[in-house]
Design a protein that fits this description.
The chain is mainly alpha-helical and 383 residues long. It has 2 domains: 273 residues, Rhopdopsin 7-helix transmembrane proteins; 69 residues, no CATH class. 61% of the residues lie in helices and 4% in strands. The chain is built from 13 helices and 6 strands. The strands form 3 sheets. Strands 1-2 form a two-stranded antiparallel sheet. Helix 3 packs antiparallel against helix 5.
Length: 383
Amino acid sequence: MANCKLLDQLQMKKYSTHTCQVPGRDRRSLVRITAIVFGILGLLAYALRCFARLTVAAQQWGISDWFITLAVMVMIPLQVLSIPLANHGLGLDMWNVSTDNITSILYLYYWDEMIYITSLSLTKISILCFYLKVFPGRQFRYIVYFLIFANATYIVSFDFLLAFQCNPIAGAWLSWDGAFQSKCISINVLGWTAAAVNILLDVAVIALPLPELFRLSMSLRKKIQIILMFAVGFFVTFVSIIRLRSLVEFGNTQNVTQDYVEVGYWSTIEVPVGVICACMPAVRSLFSLVFPKVFSTSRRGYGSSFGSRGPSVMLSSQTKGGGSKLGSLGSKLDNLDPTKSIKIKQEWTVVSSDVGRERYPSDEELVRPPRDSGQSAQTAHAI
């Protein structure tokens, strides 16, 4: 290693391993299968989200949907690139890969890094735009705007650093053997910094709405479902941490095509799981139509409504001042078949404490109960 060029070292390593019949590692199938499986899962979650927008009433296409669409469009090449990476030898020991293929792997990785950064941040921006749609609190929204700006800055800054990591740029994939002279930023430091900032942004985005959610008046089952949804988000952070650990030898490796495997397949896991996390609220509203007992968004009750933080609606067939719209609606309900129900599907909004006591419509089911002269018909619903 002290006196030989890298290509000579690889030739010697290849000769010694073959002569001594040392089996080489082959993880190419792991690279392919991981990318394909999680890519399909991410696309399936996005397709269900789009289907929910088309089938669930009041599920209108919004800015968060545009951002997740952009994230998916960027995610697809990230997953697809894993196949040519594996075909060129990612997963084999470096001395068993031709020099041209090593260069091709590093060239694909050059683009892979920027695609990874962009897709992750677009997914977080989509989630933050969804928060703006749901949480009306002024202070909360200021924090959301700041995090959107932080993620946009993350995309621009790290994509720029990755794009110009070497001077000339081609050094990013040509200078590995020492034959091509270039000046490069430490890819190890750059990778660690990008991963650490990404983890901080992940934690901020996932933890931000938790205090608001836990203050809501809702059933234990609903709280468990919401916790499980956010657990998927924390899994993304967990994957980011594992990926950060795999970057230890990212810039100091002597076996590029083998040591880059972990970084590659954890990236192709993290991005689709982030997309799945962003799509889960819309998918849940779709499942509530198919499995209403499991994903029900309403409770029925008489004579009481939920707490001041939960949206509610009350319908009375006996109101003061017969000319009111509420009384008119109540009289119309009296003429309905008691076995029938009216379903109103509207996208829910969380009422924050600084908005006052204004009510926002939720997923509601208005049901006319049996007549009771001393009691008005009313239905209260949680998110």
